[in-house]
Amino acid sequence: MANLRDIRRRISSVQSTQKITKAMQMVAAAKLRRAQEAAEAARPYAERMEAVLANLAAGAQGSDTAPKLLRGTGSDQTHLLIVATSERGLAGAFNSQICKEVSRILAVREADFSEVRLSFLGKKGSDFFRGRRPEQIELMHSVGANVTYG
Q1: Beta bridge partners of 121
Q2: pTM surpassing 0.70?
Q3: Do 51 and 5 share a structural domain?
Q4: Closest alpha carbon to 66 in 74, 76, 75, 56
Q5: pLDDT tens-digit map of 111-139
Q6: What are residue 127's phi and psi, to 5 degrees?
Q7: Could you count the other beta carbons within 10 Å of the beta carbon of residue 63?
Q8: Residue 59: partners with Cβ closer than 8 Å, 6 or more residues away
Q9: How far is residue 85 from each of residues 61, 82, 119, measured CA to CA in Å?
Q10: CB 109 within 8 A of CB 79
Q11: Domain residues for 79?
């Protein structure tokens, strides 16, 4: 059986661990709040960008002089996926979730016998697919370290 000194030492150790855990929770809450504020600040930008792209696509629908990328070809046998990942690996599961979703989309499109081409923004996505599907890679572009939204 533990003596009184061991019990007090254990209580002190647990209290110290609780203080450290509480500080870590406060830091994580502050980071989460900042990330949520950044995402909310980017929402008007994303909504406006969606409206601009929809307007461009609608305006180019019947035009013969519009670029082929905007007006389309009338065939949906070839698909272009633009994959945006990070340049470095410090994004947790962000890159792996994007690559997993792209792989799922590729499997669905290939089941429909569609051709899928891949265009990458960021190094991690292109590194992932370079060894797996090099024949489908259309373009790889490094976005650099100074990309901000909002």
Answers
A1: 84, 141
A2: no
A3: yes
A4: 56
A5: 777 777 788 888 887 788 877 766 666 66
A6: -65, -40
A7: 10
A8: 66
A9: 30, 10, 11
A10: yes
A11: 75-141
